[in-house]
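Researcher: Sequence recovery benchmark, item below. Answer with residues only.
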């Protein structure tokens, strides 16, 4: 009966994940397709206005829209590749491909900014007269409104499905609206006062594009390298685990990301030393199901720390050791403590801050404990501050 329930649970997880992945891919593709069509139309109109009015700022604005369209194409390709089913070489799927597509989008944005900067500087050195019409100004004004609406829509959809590429595209579209507004303002100033600010506006546009490209690269690179686990998610998982009466604490939680919405985790649970293997097995299966149901995170590894029960001497030793360890500023946490008073050995983990070396920390702690318990064997494991 338990085997059947486990199989049903695992099957349910797979169905949920596959359904969510399919819906997510569909939203990304639909949103990106809308972005492509909109940006191509805007690029065409702006290019026409830029050529007819001899405006470098408007032409660069059109190029920027064209790069946005290309970015959306890459986002679609990335989503399709990331949605491929797991295979023998990639048993956890291809979700991280989406981070690579985000990096390519960032590179395109950065390149567009460099190109725009070069052309704008050329226009400052070799200025040319612009010639705006009311129709061209109207087209730019409409483009601003369209970009604002598109930016909000794309960013909202990106946040809905946790797509870094869509969120970046939405933010970029909002930037574009601001840049287009500056182009419109410089055109109006030129018509009123015949002072040409166009090439300087072009430089400003280029610098904003370059900055956006660099920030997108940094964010995507952080995703690829691996970031500290989200504090809210980590705390929620720990709270869910410690709701069980047998679990005194949840430690060493590590989240492994294999693409957006594809999170796996490992954790250590502090359990009573009297629990049997069968009881531990039943408990871990229960909490695995609960964590997945509440957070979508799959617990792939659950380690165990035992803690002493029904022993006043052990409790006294625990309090003494905790006081010694936590008296140091660099000791952030002590957990997994267990002492065998008959065999005279004790073991525990210490979370050490990044501004102190583990080797020196262990040397200090061991020295202080051995002064009080010289005949005990110590097994102290240094941990790093991996989660909030």
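Model:
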């Amino acid at each position: 009966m338990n085997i059947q329930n486990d199989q049903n649970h695992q099957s349910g997880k797979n169905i949920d994940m596959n359904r969510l992945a399919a819906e997510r891919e569909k939203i990304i593709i639909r949103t990106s397709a809308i972005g492509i069509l909109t940006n191509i139309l805007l690029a065409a109109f702006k290019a026409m206005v830029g050529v007819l009015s001899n405006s470098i700022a408007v032409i660069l604005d059109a190029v920027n829209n064209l790069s946005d369209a290309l970015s959306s194409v890459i986002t679609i390709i990335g989503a399709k590749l990331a949605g491929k089913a797991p295979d023998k070489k990639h048993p956890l799927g291809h979700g991280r491909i989406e981070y690579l597509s985000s990096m390519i989008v960032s590179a395109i944005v950065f390149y567009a900014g460099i190109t725009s900067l070069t052309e704008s500087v050329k226009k400052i050195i070799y200025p040319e007269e612009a010639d705006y019409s009311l129709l061209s100004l109207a087209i730019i004004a409409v483009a601003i409104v369209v970009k604002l609406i598109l930016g909000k829509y794309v960013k909202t959809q990106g946040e809905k499905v946790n797509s870094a590429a869509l969120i970046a595209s939405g933010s970029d579209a909002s930037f574009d609206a601001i840049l287009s507004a500056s182009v419109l303002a410089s055109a109006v100033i030129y018509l009123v006062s015949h002072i040409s600010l166009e090439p300087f506006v072009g430089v400003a546009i280029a610098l904003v594009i370059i900055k956006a490209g660099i920030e997108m690269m940094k964010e995507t690179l952080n995703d690829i390298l691996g970031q500290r686990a989200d504090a809210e998610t980590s705390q929620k998982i720990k709270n869910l685990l410690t709701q069980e009466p047998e679990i005194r604490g949840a430690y060493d939680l590590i989240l492994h990301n294999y693409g957006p919405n594809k999170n796996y985790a490992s954790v250590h649970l502090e359990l009573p030393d009297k629990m049997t293997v069968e009881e531990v097995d039943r408990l871990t299966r229960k909490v695995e199901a609960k964590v997945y149901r509440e957070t979508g995170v799959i617990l792939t590894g659950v380690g165990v720390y035992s803690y002493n029960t029904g022993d006043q001497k052990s409790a006294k030793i625990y309090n003494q050791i905790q006081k010694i360890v936590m008296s140091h500023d660099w000791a952030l946490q002590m957990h997994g403590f267990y002492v065998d008073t008959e065999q005279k050995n004790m073991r525990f983990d210490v979370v050490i801050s990044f501004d102190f070396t583990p080797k020196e920390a262990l040397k200090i702690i061991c020295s202080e404990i051995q002064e009080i318990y010289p005949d005990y064997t110590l097994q102290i494991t240094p941990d790093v501050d991996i989660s909030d």
